[in-house]
Write a structure and sequence with these properties.
One of its GO terms (cellular component) is cytoplasm. Its cofactor is Zn(2+); Co(2+); NAD(+). This protein is α/β, with parallel strands linked by helices and about 350 residues long. It is about 45% helix and about 15% strand. It has 14 helices and eleven strands. Strand 7 and strand 8 form a beta hairpin.
């Protein structure tokens, strides 16, 4: 597969990942290489990764963090910063983030702030991170249960997508990443959406191409609007309500936490309904979206009491301006509209629709 050039970096695929990574190390000669993993990627991905890396005389230090969204926090960042300092990391050190979206988001933020910024490289190991989290330079951590409240936009030196790491994933994690791919179709490319929702006509060998296509879509959006002043906002479709739902299920002891993609799937269903009310999304397309998402994702019960707390959490969404919650909605599949204002009454109606 050809590499994909982003604004300041390049995304490489499969065997090219290690060729280009080793070339980068040989050319830049970092003072020390740090590899950030979580407990899962330490066991299942790190051995294979280290076999491929040619560091010469440069020391490699491995830092392990606990896995899970609940660990995407400033406290974990502090631990990583302190570990790097103890191992004498300097401004010429390189941080490689080997993991899913939690590792690439947090690791990118750690690198962007340690000594005011050192070089970093993302090696995503989950489908979600391959098609979304690791590409585009968004880094950051959660503030309590509030998603991505602290962070910076800063691209790494490169992204390396080795799809063989997907063999280590549980089916649930694969499904979670698939939500972001569906989103790319809904906001950008109806033909891509149609392909994803008819996977029975494909086989596993098509997955690499679908991942590649998703990265191309995200890169087109991000390259045209790196700092999210306009078009890049469309990537938040399903995320306004989805992030609030994810936060609520994460912090509520009576709920089973949802994976990111599971929450975003609910958000896309809700926001598609809102689209029919505000942007004129045809009802036949709403039906197509519902059927396409529910082929893969199971509905999750959300009570009236749940809804009230979730709606309150919307005030923390990063797209808000002057206290007004702003949504990305759809005029049609492949035709998004940004900065839509939605009343709480309509949101409650969307939840009623979802429950029915």
């Amino acid at each position: 597969m050809d590499s994909i050039s982003t604004k300041n970096a390049v995304v490489y695929f499969n065997s090219e990942v290690y060729i280009e990574l080793n070339k980068y190390i040989e050319t830049t000669q970092p003072s020390k290489i740090f590899v950030l993993v979580d407990t899962n990627t330490h066991d299942y991905c790190l051995p294979k990764f280290l076999e491929q890396v040619e560091s010469g005389d440069i020391d490699i230090e491995v830092m392990e963090m606990p896995n899970g969204e609940e660990n995407k926090s400033i406290d974990i960042c502090t631990g990583v910063w302190e570990a790097m300092s103890e191992y004498n990391a300097d401004r010429k050190s390189l941080l490689i983030n080997l993991g899913g979206g939690v590792v690439t988001d947090l690791g990118g933020f750690v690198a962007s702030t340690y000594m005011r910024g050192i070089a970093y490289i993302n090696i995503p190991t989950t489908l979600l991170a391959m098609v979304d989290a690791s590409v585009g330079g968004k880094t950051g951590v959660d503030l309590g249960a509030l998603k991505n409240q602290v962070g910076v936009i800063n691209e790494g030196e490169m992204v390396g997508v080795d799809t063989s790491f997907l063999d280590t994933l549980a089916p649930k994690e694969m499904v979670s990443g698939f939500a972001e791919m569906l989103k790319h179709g809904l906001i950008f490319d109806k033909d891509y959406w149609n392909t994803l929702t008819h996977l029975e006509a494909l086989d596993i060998s098509d997955l690499d191409q679908l991942i590649y296509d998703s990265v191309v879509i995200k890169n087109k959006v991000v390259t045209s609007d790196p700092t999210e002043q306009g078009l890049r906002k469309i990537l938040n479709f399903g995320h306004t309500l989805g992030h609030a739902i994810e936060s609520y299920f994460l912090e509520n002891a009576d709920k089973t936490p949802l994976l990111h993609g599971e929450a975003i799937a609910i958000g896309m269903l809700l926001e598609s309904y809102l689209s029919t009310k505000i942007c004129g999304l045809p009802k036949e397309e709403l039906k197509i979206i519902n059927e396409g998402i529910l082929k893969t994702f199971t509905k999750v019960p959300i009570t009236k009491n749940d809804q009230k707390v979730i709606i309150d959490l919307l005030q923390y969404d990063k797209k808000n301006s002057h206290g007004i919650v702003k949504f990305v909605l759809l005029e049609a599949i492949g035709q998004p509209k940004i900065d839509c204002i939605v009343s709480n009454e309509l949101i409650e109606e969307a939840f009623d629709y979802y429950e029915s």
